[in-house]
Amino acid sequence: MKRLYLKENYNSILNLMETEIAIKFVKDHFEKELATALHLTRVSAPLFVLPSTGLNDELNGTERRVNFEIHGIEEPVEIIQSLAKWKRNALAKYNFQVESGLYTDMNAIRRDEELDSLHSAYVDQWDWEKIILKEERTIEYLKNTVHDIYNVLLHIEHKVHKEFPQLKCVLPKDIFFITTKELEALYPNLSSIEREREICKEKGAVFLMQIGVPLSNGLPHDGRASDYDDWELNGDLLVYYEELDIALELSSMGIRVDEESIQKQIEYKHEGYKLNNPYVKNIINKNLPYTIGGGIGQSRICMFFLKKVHIGEVQSAIWPEEDLKELQNKNIHLL
C-alpha cells in the first residue's frame, strides 16, 4: 500500500547542507556504537551473488530480483535483496567465535518496492550477524539483544541533540515487547499497520515479536521468508514517529532458523523446492553456526533522528515525477 505523506506547513529543521553533515554524523556514530555493543567486526559484503548458491534472500517470495550478465561468468548474477543468508555463511568461513559477529553496509535494489515516503527502490542497511549457542535460542536472549540495540539508539539520539540542539529527543527510556498475537487481541478490528500505530503511539518504542506466525485468520501479521528468521524468535523494532503520526520500522531482526524450524517453516509455506538449496542443506546438516542477526535501516535511522518526512530527504534515489511535483508543492525537497 503506497503511503505518500504530504504534510501541511512542513519546513525541514535542517537545510540541505546541514542535512548531509548530519547524515554522516548519525551514520558514523551509530555504526561504531553498534559494533561495540554487539561485539561485531566490519566486513566487506557482495552487491551481487550467483543464484545457484542459494544465498540471495527471497524476502516474501514474490519480489523479482535484478539480474545481469558479467563477461566470463556463465551464470547471470543477481543483485542481493538482503544479506540474511550470506552473513551466516561468512561467519563460518571467517571462523568467528561464539558471542562475536560481523556487520556490513548492505546496499540493494528492490525493483518491485512501492515508492512512497518510507520506501525506496534503493535499500541501505547495516546488516549484522553474530554466533550464539543453541541453548541461547530463546526469547530472553532475543530481548537482551534488542535492549542492547535500543540503548545504542538512545545514546545516538542524545548525541544528535547535543550536536544539533534544534533536534529534540523523543525516545522513551524503555522499549515495550509484545507478540503479534497479543497485539491482534488488543486491536482485533484494526489492520496490521493500524495496530502498529496504536501500540507505538501509546508506548513510544515497541519490539513486535513473532512476525510470520499465523494469526486468528490464518495469515501472519507480515510476511517473512521461511529460511532465515525463526518466526517464534524474531521481531521488528518500531518507534512512534510524530512527524507523520505513524509507527516507523527501524529494524527487522531475529534468531535464525535451526535444523528443525527451517523444515517446519518451509513445509508451512509449501516451499519444498528449497530443500535442494545448498544453503538450506547446510542448515539442516548443521554445517552452519547458530546465529542471531538483522538489518537496521540507515536511511530510516537518519529520517527519524533528523525529523524528515520523506526518505528521499536523507538518500539520493529516483521517484515518480508526479510525486516529486506534489512533494515540492508541500515544501518537501529531496536529495
List the SSEs and their pairings.
Blueprint: H1 16-38, E1 40-42, E2 48-49, E3 67-68, E4 77-79, H2 84-93, E5 101-109, E6 122-131, H3 139-163, E7 176-179, H4 180-186, H5 192-203, E8 205-209, E9 229-241, E10 246-256, H6 261-268, H7 278-284, E11 291-297, H8 298-305, H9 321-329
Parallel strand pairs: 1-5, 7-8
Antiparallel strand pairs: 2-4, 3-4, 5-6, 6-11, 8-9, 9-10, 10-11
Helix pairs in contact: 1-3, 1-8
Q: What percent of residues are in strands?
A: 15-25%
What is the C-alpha radius of gyration, as a whole number of Å? 20 Å
Global mean pLDDT: 94
Measured distance between first and last alpha carbons = 24 Å
What profile does the largest beta sheet have?
8 strands, mixed
- What string gives the helices and strands in order? HEEEEHEEHEHHEEEHHEHH
- Outline the low-pLDDT stretches: none
Structural class: alpha+beta
For the largest sheet, list the strands in their spatial order.
1-5-6-11-10-9-8-7
Given the C-alpha coordinates, what overall shape results? Answer: globular
Count of helical segments?
9
- Helix share, percent: 25-40%
DSSP strand count = 11
